Task: structure prediction
Amino acid sequence: MNQIDPRKIMAGVQRRRAVMALRGRSATMSMTAMPAPLVSLGGQPLPEQLPDTTPTTSPAEVDAQMLQLRERLTVRDMSAERFAQAALLCHEAAHAITAAVYGGVIRTVTADPAKAAKVGREHFGGEHFGDGVHGVTTYKTSPVRPELTTLAGPIAHARFCVGGQRRPTRREVDRVLQDEGQHDAEAITAAGGWIGDIFGEVNAIVERLWTPICELAQRIHDEGEVGHSTVLDVLGAPENDPGVALSLLRNGAAPGTFTVTPAAV
Result:
């Protein structure tokens, strides 16, 4: 029978406690040194704590970027509302351009609905003139062939809607005459005209004058409302003596193919 030594038992207990204490400190240090897990307990990635390096853009830089974007936009990028407004601008510009070429003197032309209603009521009378009217062209002196200038608006409108690169068909123009150009159709009929008689002639005129029509449409958009001097400027006709330039345009010359020296004042 072995004799039990209490001192040996106590020494063994102390050694085991020391070993357990060392193991505990080692485990704590290991856990502290471990990197944070990339996946949470729910299985979703945890966001990395990175410094915020998002660059700040000044308002001037934002404006410059937006300007570059607008310059790259095409007709395909337009909203339906802006597309319709651009077509209407071409519509009114064509009235004014052809009227000036055929001897008319423009009082005012606008594609702003509020201004159109106001100008229309003042010029034509009638409390409800503005109902359904989005643009208007008025004259101090009427053109010598009003039926041409009246139909030019719907034809330019339709031409823009089909891309601006070709003459619109009769069916495409009829769609405009049944909608935005309804007042034009009524004016031609009231004057005793028939669209079929002048359709080809006016289509050719609009094609020849398409560049100044588009330029005037832009001016109307920028300024809201323009008069005769702006129309002459777009046509390249001297304001103090436009007769020669307008005669050349009336007889088939294309805008930009001739130069007229203004008469001395």
The two ends are 144 Å apart (CA to CA).
